[in-house]
Amino acid sequence: MPSPPPRFLTVLLTAVMAYSMLQLFLLGAFAPYLNAELGVGPPLLGAAVAVGFATAALLSPVAGYLTDLLGPRTCVLGLFALIAFALGLFAAAPNVWVLLVAVAIGGLPQAFANPATNKVIMATFSPERRGAVTGWKQSGVQVGAFAAGLPLASLAAATDWRRAVALASVTALAMALWAALALPVDEHRSPPRVAVVPRGAVAWLTGFSVLLGCGIASVNAHLSLFSAVELGLGELAAGALVAVLGVAGVAGRVAWSRAAGGRRGPDGFPALLAWLSVVAALLLAVAPLVPWAVWPGAALIGVFAVAANAISMVVVMRRATGGRAGQDSALVSAGFFAGFAVGPPLFGLLVETVGYQVGWLLVAAEFALAGAVALAWRLEERRRAVA
């Protein structure tokens, strides 16, 4: 039975997820400043985002192994140290090349975030509480988006963007101190066997996450521009639309993860949420003809698609054995990051050639295929149970 969790541990785990993605959200929020000062236009901005997610995807298996080997507390402390260094380099970057190095270093904390936080949850929370706690900590990604888009962006407008990023770097060090005081001491265990190729349920969830990540990343990257160019929304309305997506994502992750942590288990939820996400993508596809449809479309992407990623982490923790929760979490996360690296460029290519409606239909197809992968996994599980 896990030991009682320290007070505010869920808040700390949520902060880990928020800080792990903060640098990439700052790239988007501070894009005008970066373009004016460093010449980071749309192509370079897209390349920077791809560098961050590609680094996270490639290094996730290593991060998972190290988390299982060293323990989650050690890795959370290292994660915050890496974030502080990467943000400090971001704040001081004299040119775009140093900025790209900072973004690449920032991919390391992304790789460690899910393995480390999942292992903390398994070590400190009882099984019936893990689903709800996972939902809250996964919502930290949306908290990071909020922090970049409002308080830090406001500070940048009032003072300077470099000072805002430097402040984020300093607060990451403060978070490391909190983690050192709050997290239980790591248990020393024999090293697990290294796993680079996912197998069994982890392989199915990795494939599911690739497709899910492609769709979610396309929405995150292109929704605001779509609403402005195709629907004629002003900057304030476009920002409100992104806020709707973020708030709905928090609510969806918490609610669905709590439900998945119940007695019936989480296995049936990935397919359900992926197919419900198809409806949301189709609402975006019809928005040029029915403009109000963009609002429920954005909200339902958050409630269903964004929540499905949290559910995959609940499944991993429910099934992890032999001290492999870190590696299993990392392999599934690698698939999600790979989808984030591939999805937006593919969507952008379609938009340039055939328009936004076909792009949203691609997103709907990615969600539908993700649901098909999840269903195939369930059928395979039942076949093995009968055999």
Can you describe this structure?
The protein is built from 15 helices and no strands. With 387 residues, it is mainly alpha-helical. The chain folds into two domains: 1-191, Growth Hormone, Chain: A (Up-down Bundle), CATH 1.20.1250; 195-387, MFS general substrate transporter like domains (Growth Hormone, Chain: A, Up-down Bundle), CATH 1.20.1250. Helix 10 (200-229) packs antiparallel against helix 15 (356-386). The radius of gyration is 20 Å and the shape is globular. The two termini are 33 Å apart. 56% of the residues are buried.
Could you name the ranges where pLDDT drops below 50 across 5 or more consecutive residues? none
CATH level 1 name of the largest domain: Mainly Alpha
Span from first to last CA?
A: 33 Å
- Number-wise, the strands total 0
Major sheet summary line: none
CATH domain fold name of the largest domain: Growth Hormone, Chain: A
Strand content: under 5%
Q: What's the CATH H-level homologous superfamily of the largest domain?
A: MFS general substrate transporter like domains
User: Any idea what the radius of gyration is?
Assistant: 20 Å
Number of domains: 2
The number of helical runs is 15
**Helix/strand structural class:** mainly alpha
Looking at the structure, what is the overall shape?
globular
Q: Helical percent range?
A: over 70%
CATH architecture descriptor of the largest domain: Up-down Bundle
Element order: H for helix, E for strand? HHHHHHHHHHHHHHH
The overall pLDDT, averaged over residues, is 87
